[in-house]
Amino acid sequence: MGKGTFFNYFPSKEHILAAFGRMQISKVQAAADRVAETNLPIRDYLIRLAMDATSAPARNPAIIRALLQANLSSSPVRQTMKEIHAKATALLAHIIEEGQKRGEIRRALDPVLIAQTLRQSLLGSMLVWSLYGDGTLEQRVQTVFDVIWYGISATPAPYSSAPGAGDGNRP
Fold it and tell me: With respect to CATH, is domain 12-154 assigned 3.40.50.2000?
């Protein structure tokens, strides 16, 4: 695509990343809309959603760095990204609530707090992977998710069973 054509669609290069964020939110919306109908355990449902959401950026650490930079780049983009993050958190909290109804996630924990923690941890995983580029983003996401899951699960597994947990070799 030529530079002129690009700017017919987006006011700046940062705005394409906001469009990417809106595309990602549609994945979370679809998952939240279908969660009550699924027979999958919520843990598996959330992992599948996380892997789907990170599949496009997982091709290149530079894409992750650009996405993260766009979150901070300018006031209009920052505002748009804040709105996207707030909506994604609310949708994810809806999925968490379904897990709580099923008895798969501890009810004593606020679903919004769980959703925020999960999102922040996944974003952190993406950042660290974009800096180091070691392993795959999917491996990092899986490890972070396992550690968090053991903290929110109604029947937690031993921490040491999380793949890569406690090995001291991961930044």
Answer: no
